[in-house]
Specification:
By secondary structure, this protein is an alpha/beta fold. It is built from 22 helices and twelve strands.
Length: 470
């Protein structure tokens, strides 16, 4: 997938000016947030927080000995009849999949949702070789027809209204136009059924890799994952190396926190554990199973100050709670992963120089960290990336000069106190009778879309001192 993260500011402005998108985002609002809150309450607040602690500990345990658990997974998966392949980058993912297709003479691939295949631009590579890829997750199917990337990792087409979906279906299905949501879903099911039955390759991701059994665990809500992993003669699971966990007991713990954090469900509609290809006596399943374990920048995080990001279980809770994501949507971020997780993953996977604005695309309010089921300190990681940008001289010179000036004053208390007293009084005068500033010098970004309330003309220290005297 082409990286467009350098254009975040322009894409964000475009999203803000898109009335239809803003209407959709407003409707999306706090839907997943409210459902997560209700699920947390139903589970028990104290118990849920203990579950988050346990989940974070499981992920840290796996990452602490990542090589050991990966080799254990490879050993067990191979014993079950699967073939484990290692891929260093996106190019190797594409090469391995195309080699598998050539080896088995495969012509059509049905796909369950896989963010790693999005990283690799796999669909385009398959099409270039004459192999037809068909996304079978409803949201992914819609955006495939629209030739767009996903805008959310668990709700890929959340930026679309049903009228847009209806237009896409008319264009591609050549059927009468429908606008009822249930009817549109039924039409998609009818169109996909033929692909399920005729495909010879199934491609899935993997939510977790279980080292003790060599199993791939897949979580879905539509059942398409079951079809993808059982009907075609070849199944290829593509997933990042960080997804490995030690035991089935660990999987049980993580599967309690994942759906509650993602969609507010107690459990997903479909939870599948795949261990090797079809065995003698099995009624379904592929003849051949491959698991492609992907690095693509992940090992650079191991042992670094960014390692905690590898805990991520791709639930989407951080973006659901992020005020920036809720305002500009997922496409503004310009790569596979939007929201706070994307603001960390995109620069660390693809180079911070290719995503200069993303570490800045956060208010650092902390809502993402509070919601994260594995307690990733996202604001801290974003601050670390901002520090790296400043140290490398990647931020605009005016910004760097401004911080140096602020640091000079902040380390001299008397000078800082004088400067702030002058500043708040000047801002009070700028606010006039209305008490609002519509244009802020040296900070126009704050007032492009809203007025800034003017201070009353005294600093916090002055207000605090007067209250103590009273």
């Amino acid at each position: 997938m082409r990286i467009q993260s350098m254009q975040f500011k322009a894409r964000a402005h475009g999203a803000l000016a898109d009335a239809r998108l803003q209407s959709v985002l407003k409707r999306f609002g706090s839907g997943f947030v409210d459902k997560r809150a209700a699920a947390r309450e139903a589970y028990g607040v104290g118990a849920f927080e203990a579950l988050r602690d346990a989940s974070a500990a499981i992920r840290d345990r796996a990452l602490g000995n990542l090589d050991v658990w990966l080799l254990r997974f490879e050993e067990q998966a191979t014993r079950s009849g699967a073939t484990v392949i290692w891929a260093r980058d996106a190019a190797e993912i594409r090469r391995h999949v195309l080699e598998i297709c050539a080896r088995h003479g495969l012509k059509k691939a049905i796909k369950s949702k896989s963010m790693v295949s999005e990283e690799a631009g796999l669909n385009e590579a398959l099409e270039a070789r004459g192999i037809t890829p068909v996304e079978t997750d409803l949201g992914e199917y819609i955006i495939q027809l629209a030739k767009e990337p996903p805008s959310h990792i668990i709700a890929p087409a959340i930026h679309k209204v049903k009228e847009q979906v209806a237009d896409l279906f008319v264009e591609h299905h050549h059927r009468p136009r429908l606008t009822d949501t249930e009817a549109l879903t039924r039409e998609a099911r009818e169109m996909l059924r033929g692909h399920f039955l005729s495909a010879d390759l199934g491609i899935s991701g993997g939510n977790f890799l279980v080292a003790e059994t060599g199993s791939v665990a897949i979580v879905t809500n539509e059942g398409n994952g079951r079809m993808v992993t059982t009907l075609p003669k070849v199944h290829v699971a593509i997933t990042g190396i960080e997804k490995v966990i030690p035991t089935l007991e660990d999987l049980s713990t993580l599967n309690r926190v994942l759906p509650r954090s993602a969609t507010g469900q107690d459990i997903s509609n479909y939870f599948t554990i795949v261990t090797g290809p079809r065995r003698e006596g099995d009624l379904d399943g592929p003849e051949h199973m491959y698991v492609i374990l992907v690095d693509a920048g992940r090992t650079r995080l191991v042992g670094s100050d960014m390692q905690q990001m590898l805990r991520c279980i791709r639930c989407g809770a951080c973006m659901n709670h992020c005020p920036v994501f809720q305002t500009v949507g997922g496409h503004a971020y310009g790569w596979v992963y939007p929201g706070p997780m994307g603001s960390v993953l995109t620069p660390v996977y693809n180079g911070i120089e290719n995503a200069l604005d993303l570490p800045q695309a956060a208010t650092l309010c902390g809502a993402c960290e509070v919601a994260c089921p594995v307690k990733i300190p996202l604001p801290e990681l974003l601050r670390t990336l901002r520090e790296r940008q400043m140290q490398a001289g990647l931020r605009p010179w005016r910004e760097r000069a401004g911080f140096r000036l602020w640091a000079f004053a902040a380390t001299r208390p008397r000078l800082y106190a004088l400067a702030t007293r002058i500043a708040v009084r000047a801002l009070r005068l700028m606010g006039g009778a209305k008490g609002r500033i519509s244009r802020l010098p040296l900070g126009s970004g704050w007032t492009l879309g809203r007025d800034m309330p003017a201070p009353e003309g005294r600093t916090f220290r002055e207000l605090y001192a007067s209250r103590r005297k009273a």
